[in-house]
Amino acid sequence: MSRIGIAVHRFRPDALEVAREVAAWASTHQMVTIVDEADSAAINSPHVQPGRLADVDLLVSIGGDGTMLRAIRSLEGATVPVLGVNLGLLGYLAAVEQEQLLPSLEAWRTGVEGTQFFYDDRMLLEVAMWSNNARLANHLALNEVVIEKKDAGHTVRLAVDIDKVPFTTYAADGLILSTPTGSTAYSMSARGPILSPRLRAMLLTPVSPHMLFDRSMVLDAPEVVRIEVIGHRHVNVATDGDLVHTLKPGDVVEVRAANEVARFVRFEEQRFHQILKTKFGLSDR
């Protein structure tokens, strides 16, 4: 029996109604619908049950790009296909609009990969944190990891090594390390370049640097970036917008391309530059 997972923007009534429709559709096809406990209470449907989303066959994300990021985080690195349903504003990650959802689910249920649907794998970042030579935590990120000042009004000093070779020390509000998928998120607002999500690369972008060198760098995916907090100020570490740790001087963050990937379900070719064109209202000529 197939298992469908749902991740939903639980504070939007329209998203919750779509989630109930998905659960009812799954029930008619003898599929089990799994959600996390918080979403289960919000959806309030007899067709859903709480469980581990990393064990499902397909995860349906209902909301926007923020819900997609939460959906990927909930998989804990498992390569579960994710179908994004966009509600409202144009998103970069979602594959279908609300009116296309049930036909798309039917195409996934009855179709053949490579014909009726296909998979779009995206690079993830692996983020490890260390304090006094002891590992604090490991996280995965689809968009970016941000190492940023904890207190307003001050820059922080972050010493960067690339592949065990010292590069420089940044005096800045922080540093962003992003994937190509994340190049249109926080990094872009910090004047970073836009990368095609088909690439495997890592983007290092300073946030408000107080130094002459203020450019982003595009690094090869196998390169490992080590960042040590120096000086006397603490920093916050966030992955995909979620605060995961506060580090003190002497603590270290290591970022590399993960072995795991995020897998999206697509039903037609989505040209990245056309999404950008629509997003920014660009003309043909």
From TrEMBL:
GO molecular function, one term: NAD+ kinase activity
SUPFAM superfamilies in the record: NAD kinase/diacylglycerol kinase-like
Record's keyword terms, sorted: Kinase, NAD, NADP, Transferase
GO terms, biological process: NAD+ metabolic process; NADP+ biosynthetic process
Pfam families, per database record: NAD_kinase, NAD_kinase_C
Name the record gives this protein: Unannotated protein
Native species: freshwater metagenome
Lineage: unclassified sequences, metagenomes, ecological metagenomes
